[in-house]
Structures are given as C-alpha cells and as structure tokens.
Amino acid sequence: MTTRLTVPTARPYDVVIGNGVHEQLRGLVGFGLGVMRVAIIHPPSMARQAEVLREPLVSDSLEVHLIEVPDSEQAKTAEVLAFCWKILGQTGFTRSDVIVGLGGGATTDLAGFVAASWLRGVRFVNVPTTVLGMVDAAVGGKTGINTAEGKNLVGAFHEPVGVLCDLDVLRDLPARELRSGLAEVAKCGFIADPTILDLIEAAPERISDPLSPIVAELITKGIAVKARTVAGDLRETGADGSVGREALNYGHTFGHAVEKFENYRIRHGEAISIGMVYVAEIAHRSGRIDQDLLDRHRSILGTIGLPMTYRPGIWEALAATMRLDKKTRGDRLRFVVLDGLAQPAILAGPDESLILDAYRAISS
User: Which residues is 40 bridged to in the sheet?
Assistant: First the structure.
C-alpha cells in the first residue's frame, strides 16, 4: 500500500510512503515549470540508487548532475556546502532547476540548505533512505549544517515540494540505523501519539525487521505527528502560546550536546534516546511526571535496543554546549519536558542543581 500524507503549511506538500514510490520523482521535478537541470546530492552508499533516480530524468531530456558528499554528519559542513555551490555554479543552475536530497537525515539537511541558499531559494525534493530521515529530517523544512561550536547552528527554513519515503530502500538498512530511527518514532509517541508506544510494546520482536508492516506503520505514524506539528508552527515560534514545533526537540538539547562531545561518532537517535531519559529525569524530579512514565521511557527505549545512560564526569562540557542550543534564550537554558504522556511543555531556567542531578542519574 501507498500512503500519502499532506503537510498543510502555507505551501502544502505531500509525503508519499510505500514501496517503489521513488518512481514518482519525475512528477515532482515539475516539467512544466521550466526545469532544465536536476542535482541529486547523495552519500557514497547511495551512488547506485542515485543512478536509478537519474536514468528516467535523463530520458526526459533533463540535465542531471550527481553530487557525492561524505556520509553522515561529515556532510554537514561549510566546506561541503561550498563544494555543492561550486558544482551548481559550474553547471549553470537557475531558479527553475531542482535539487534532490537522497540519503539519510544528514544528507537531506544539507541538500535542503543548498536549495535554500542557492539563488536565495530553489525547489527541492527529499528522498530519505533511512527511518530517521523519513520520520525526522526530510519533513518540516528545517535545513542546515553544523559548526565547530554545535549542531545545526546554521540553517534556514525551506520546505521541499515533496518527500518520497520508499520503503524498499530499507531492505539493507543496518540494524543500528534502524534503532536510531526508531528513537525519533518513540519520541513522537511520548510527545503526541501514545499508540506508537503501544505498538512497540505489543510487538517488540517485529520492530527489528525494517520491512515488517509494523515498522511501516510506525514510520507513517511518526511522519503524521511531525506533519501536524510543523503545520501549526512552521518556524518554531510558539506564537499561540503553546509549545508548538519545539515539542519535536524532546530529548534534543542534551542529545545534541552528546553528539558534539562524541564528535558525531554516536548515531543521532542514540544520543536522542539518552536525551529523552535525561529530560524524563528532570520532569520526574520537578514533579511533572510520575515514576511510571519515567520507567516507561527506559522500557520503550530498552525494547528498541537504544542506550539510556552516558559517561560521567563531563558535565561542564555538556552544559557549555547546551547553552548554545537553539532553544536557549539569553543565558537561560530551556528544555522540552513532559507534564504527562503526550503533554509537552517548556521548562525555562531550571535550577542548576536539578539538571545536574538528572545528569548524575543517567551517568551513575
């Protein structure tokens, strides 16, 4: 089956989920809009799939350029960004041409920022190839790169014209990558849709198979949560007084600090898993959630096979990175926490002893 979810922002677009949906790329490129050139940005591991996408576009007389970039977070640098700009300049990319991001979340983050920054914005399509890319990075219009000081500190909001989540590409997904992606799915369960957690608990043996129907259902539910959330608060302003899009950052403030300290050798979802347990400890210690919900974090994430503890003795380094987090305002740290299951809230300026005690709890 193929599922089509609409992200109802000011410029609505569809996320198509199913087997073989990469064949819809030709339609998304938009032949009636004057497109002459397509650039497919991809990591080395997706070189063969890039050729698969390229062939039908070339047969339609389009000029297709394959831009190979490093794997994972190594792609999200100013140097790689400049390399992509150079290729676009040398090949004469205009505002009517199209960027395609083919790969995991890091690749689609980069490709989106290339599209956002080239000629102040050209159209782009995301073709995510990991569970993490499908449920997190490819949807929502957040694009960007890392700096030496932190993750995703440079970027832009720039929405794709469409997202193609082809489940066939998950066939060869390494088990560690699957677990990493399911961390973001579980996050959606904690902040918005508890039926996700019920599914994980009901069939723990089936979530290890990337081609199982339950994984497809979890991916679809995770994308649906993100689509609803970004539609109401695309630019993460929380303008109506609600948590808004910031809810999607559950576990990310501490998780991003872990990623940076590990020089991105740890998977994003692994770091976010640790970050979710950390903020659950904060919420429990501040009286916001009960012991059962704190324990459920550990149970769900443990079922997936994700880490829930982190090394001791590096609090100052982690705290310094968190102070550069995008949610920080002035010198006040802000965490997305829960006031209950599927009840996200913002905790601003927490007492230093509270957040330090939570760190001790996950590093003991």
Answer: 66, 100
Residue 324 burial class via C-beta count within 10 angstroms: exposed 0-12, middle 13-18, buried 19 and up: middle
| Cα 198 to Cα 1: distance, rounded to the nearest angstrom | 22
Contact 171, 210 (CB under 8 A): yes
Q: Return the biggest CA–CA distance within the chain.
A: 63
d(CA 110, CA 174) in angstroms, rounded, equals: 22
3-class DSSP state of 110: helix
User: What does the alpha-carbon distance between residue 250 and residue 258 come to, in Å, rounded to a whole number?
Assistant: 14
* Domain count within the chain: 2
Residue at a domain's end among 172, 203, 222 = 172
Do 139 and 275 fall into the same domain?
Answer: no
Residue range 115-133, pLDDT digits in tens: 999 999 999 999 999 999 9
CA distance 113 to 19: 27
> Residue 284: which domain range?
175-363
Same-domain status, 238 and 297: yes
Q: What integer is the mean pLDDT of 301-312?
A: 97
Record the pTM.
0.93
Q: Which of 127, 142, 172 finishes a domain?
A: 172
